[in-house]
Amino acid sequence: MPVQSSWNRSPLRANRFTPLPIGAVRASGWLGDKLSAQNERWLETLEQNSARDESSLPRAMEALLYVSRVTGDASLLRHTDRAFARLFDLDEAGGGNRSIVSIAPESYVAPRAALHYFEATGDARAIQYALRHCADQLGALVKSAPGDPESLAVWGEFAYIALNAYNHTGRAQLLKLAQKWSRIGLDWTGWYHRFPQIQPMNRSIPSEQLARIAREERAQMIGAVLPFHTHLSLAARGDMAAMGLRACAVKSMFTGGLKDEQAFSIGFEKLIKNHGVAADMFTCDEYLEGRDPSKGISSAAVCETMRALITALWATDDVGWIARYADILERLAFNLIPAAISPDARSVQEAQRVNQIECSAVARAHYSLSDDAGLYIRRPPTDPVASRLFGALPEYVVSLWMRAEDAGLAMMGAAPCVVRHRVDGRLIRLDVETAYPYEETVRIRISCKDPVKLPIYLRIPAWANGAFATLPDGQTLECSPGTFVRVERVFRSGDCIRLTLPMRPELVEVSPANLSVAIGPTLYALPIEARETAVSAAAGEEAFAYSACSEWKVALAADAELEKVPALRTGEPPLVRCSTAQAPGWGVKHKAAAAPPRDPEILADSICERTLTPYAQTRLRIAQFPAWSAQTACELARNAAL
């Protein structure tokens, strides 16, 4: 049986919301259909490799746990149970040898997966597994600091496990473990308050040179003091920067200090200010690379940023920030994650670009990811890159609803799902019926055997001006954007709350003279016709390259009206029609679009209406545009006439 939500025990800071057990929220509607393709890919892989021991692939086990629980697929559930049973058997047989690797960089993944398995199933072997590894870590840290600097950078993951296990068991030594990690680990709170990395990494030091110097420093490293270049090589890496945000959220729970509490929000805002692009993500391929939308975004960094945001939803007690984090979270889930996975879930992209005019294997100046990181490579879901991506959307589903401090339920995301929860021992079911984010109306239908009094919190996105909720008795509540609306009443089976979130196309200024287009949480892009070519990746895997075969040098009218074009069929996304013009001076650099030009020269006779589609449906695209004004176009036309 699933373990009920665990609240922060004293002396941890009290939290407003806490996650529901994994499996309490299941995907439905279009979201369920999206995950069904991943289910098929998982089953195909697991059946083809029936002799493989998934317990040796902890990231894959973690992703498999999430997808099996949020879809309820019986075959996947059996595979998941077998994999964890083997993991526990091997651990019990290993005995004291565990302490040798208990503080290695990736050693947090298996106990974290086991802890979540315990929360999903109540299996006592799972919590014992996590507790044994925590005890081994504490013993190892008493003797000496970790020898690998990466362990010092990811300390927040170890502390996260310790704090969650403490909430379940109340064992004081788990608090000591979390505090020990925070003392010896990389000071992420200080890093984000200072945040010296305001320039693209390639302007500071080339990645190859940084890696070489860091290797030399590591050979002479003493204790837990990170030398300068070693520190930089970790803190300025995209996935590590995201895990550092999570470390800040975790630390704030047991220190209670204002500086720690603010580090997450300050850190994220600084990342976006200095390295942000459309969809509220920062560039990293794999180091932080500034605000050019043609720079890569590592899939690992997107997944770790989502995990950090999910943690912040329950680690933070500021309702305004919780609403803000949930806004960002759904933009990543609805745009960047699906764009990195092919529709048949057979190919994944290690690094995507907001402005992506080519996907090819090419040596990209100053980037540290492999040359084929931009290809769509056929990889099984057990692959390290694929397992992160395949786990991201199911983990997001788990966070769609949370338990509130007054025994209510809180809607963090409006995507279609089914929620099962017990109130005073009585089962209540919520069916969230919607095509959101492509539909404005969200219907929450309540099913229960007997009437039940329950507070329900509805998150209203910051963009949803004019939002309102219609209650079962017909009463209408006006809803303020960027906060939660509390609805408390006695609900009866068949009651329905209807939430209306008006969605209008809007221009978003991403950076000076750079614009993007969004409807609600959905980012829109100019789709580029792509020529697909089958190629081989460096490791011999089958892969696909894409090259542009339609015009992409397009600027967007900054003062023109955007027209929302309704979808032809129910459940499909609307399109956006807008005024554009060709910008022939927009160049190409390193086989990628150059940074969008400021005040671009446009061709007056090329002004026309173009249709934008959702970012997630594109392979090649322009989603961050240079801006021009209609007034400029009139002047050009007048000059041409003269």
Shape: globular
Mind describing the biggest β-sheet?
A: 7 strands, antiparallel
Distance between the termini: 80 Å
Give the mean pLDDT.
91
Class of secondary structure makeup: alpha+beta
Counting DSSP H or I runs of 4 or more residues, the number of helices is: 18
How much of the sequence lies in strands comes to 15-25%
Tell me the Rg in angstroms.
25 Å
The quaternary structure here is single chain
What share of residues is helical? 25-40%
Major beta sheet, strand line-up: 2-12-13-14-19-16-17
Which parts are unreliable, with pLDDT below 50 for 5 consecutive residues or more? Answer: none
Q: Count the beta strands.
A: 32
Describe the protein's architecture and organization:
- The radius of gyration is 25 Å and the shape is globular.
- The termini are far apart.
- The longest helix has 21 residues, at 74-94.
- Strand 16 and strand 17 form a beta hairpin.
- It is α+β, with helices and mostly antiparallel strands and 642 residues long.
- Helix content is 40%, strand content 23%.
- Helix 1 crosses helix 2 and helix 15 packs parallel to helix 17 (384-398).
- The strands form 7 sheets. It has a 7-stranded antiparallel β-sheet.
